[in-house]
Amino acid sequence: MPTLDVDGAAIAYSDQGEGDAVVLLHGFAASIAENWERSGWISMLARAKRRVVAIDLRGHGKSAKFYDPGDYSLDIFALDVVAIVEHLQLKKPDLIGFSLGARVVLQALLLRPERFLLGVLCGAGELLLNPRADRDPEEFARAMEAPNAEAIGDDMARRFRLFAEGQGQDLKALAAVSRGLNASARGWSAAELGGIKHETLVVAGTGDDLAGAPEPLARALHNAKAVRVPGCGHMDCLIQPMFKGAVMDFLAGMPS
Fold it and tell me: Is residue 74 part of a domain?
């Protein structure tokens, strides 16, 4: 897999297919292989005559690992994406992000709006605007540092630890990612999100307790629509045919 040096960080990416470009950004503790290859998204988009560029976010997959939380933030992730887009000379690609990747999509659209065409926020919803106040921001970092998964009391954090272990991820790096994102966390105001003029899709499953309903987030954006997919949770949504169909219909310009 090729890499691009971005200010000393080797950012890994894949580049497949031909046609109008689309950039894929995975979720926390995932990778190109887990979110986009195994679930069939890259092959599906390539068959639809798209050039598909998928990026391993720093701290994940085959990209550089750092152990200082200061090396991770939404701004840093978004600027890594912009660097890949410019390096490959992609002309206004569409951006598709899942979970953490959806947050990076929003940040990229805010930082460099002229570089992108459409945005797709998968596994994202109202909890991006109004995060749950009952969650300990250190929970995920501690879960990655725990001696084993059985030592983790929080069910969601334990699931992410097992998910990361199953892929052979660098747990120490993921702890730093979690702390870096929490340290640099900032809420998006309605006025700021309303400044995103790109046509955008917000899509989440009806059982996605990490995203919440997609409609409030779509309403905060200037030109967005929401789709709720029945029977999908957070961790399984990318493999669901109806979820894939909603995104492909949006990319093709079909009415919902």
Answer: yes
Residue 111 lies inside a defined structural domain of this protein: yes
Burial 191-230 (b: 16+ CB within 10 A, else e): eebeebebbbbbbbbeebebbbbbbbbbbbbeebbbbbbe
Q: Residue 115 is part of which domain span?
A: 3-133+187-251
Nearest to 171, CA basis, from 151, 191, 189: 151
Instruction: Please give the structure tokens belonging to residue 16.
Output: 């497949």
- pLDDT(148) > 90: yes
User: CATH no. for residue 71?
Assistant: 3.40.50.1820
Q: What is the pLDDT of residues 207-243, one digit of tens each?
A: 999 999 999 999 999 899 999 999 999 999 999 999 9
Give the HSE-up count for residue 83: Cα atoms under 13 Å, Cβ half-sphere: 20
Which pLDDT tens digit goes with each residue over 39-65? Answer: 999 999 999 999 999 999 999 999 999
pLDDT tier for residue 191 given thresholds of 50, 70 and 90? confident
